[in-house]
Each structure stands twice: as structure tokens, then as C-alpha cells.
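Entry 14. Ran structure prediction on the chain below.
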Amino acid sequence: MEIIMPLFIAVTVVFGWVKKVPLFDAFVAGAKDGIRVLIKIAPTLVGLIVAVDMLKASGFTDMLCEMITPLADSFGFPKEIVPMVLLRPISGGGSTALLTNIYKDIGPDSFAGKVASVLAGSTETTFYAIAIYFGSVKVKKTRHTLISALAADLTAAVTAVLTVRMFL
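Output, C-alpha cells:
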């Protein structure tokens, strides 16, 4: 596995050399474009990070978890994954920390651990993705994107529970 990246780089360099592409010039042009994109999306990204931190610091996410846990429990959701279901669309790092805590506290082979694993692999950091993709091209009206993406996240959570119940 350690050879994959060096091999990829070598193949890219050889391919560029064979096709007579000015590799260094192409690399520098790509780096310049990358910096331009970074400058475009930085304000959106900073705003998103501040909003996420404010939600966590205010205790809103904890309050929401407490409200949803009884309902989730009645549908067979493990109560341990409720915070992850709520945090995953907002913060990839935060949900990964919750996943790690589930592994430490309950175990990766527990029902909640398996559901959390499936959930981590089948959902997206929705708000981050929308902020980055739409922000980079200056789209102001996302229309139905957020509702559709959150519905997909909820569907993934339900499907994760059902899949683990059926197959694992």
C-alpha cells in the first residue's frame, strides 16, 4: 500500500513527459488556481466553522439530542448514535470524535458501534459540502439542496440501523 502514491506520481510524471507537457508549469498553474479557490471559499468556510462552534457552545446540540433520544429509542435507534446522526451533517471532525467515543465506550462490534460505522461511511457533512461547493461558485440560492441532503442523511441513518439489524 505504501507504494501507491509514489507509483501514482511516477506514472503521472512519465505520462506528462511522454505527452511533452511542461510539468512544472502545469503544477504551478494548478497551485495558483488552488489558491484562488481557497481565497474564494475562505469566508464561507470561516462562517460555517463559527456557526458550528456556536451551536456546540450554546448547548443547542445537547438539548436537541435529549429531545430526540426518546423518539429515536422508540424506533429502535441506539441512543448512542443520536448525537452522531445530528452532528454528522454539520461537522465531520466532530462526528468522527463521537464515532471514536462509541468505539471506546461500547465497542466497535456492538450494535451501536456497527450502526455508527455504517452511518459514518454512508453520510456526508452536508452543511460543509453545501457551503464549499455552492460558495466556491457564488451560488446564493441553494433551493431544495439542503432539505434534500438532510433527507438523504436521515434515510442513511434509518438504513444503517436496518442494514445492521438484517445483515450483521
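The chain is about 80% helix and 0% strand. Will compare against last week's run tomorrow.
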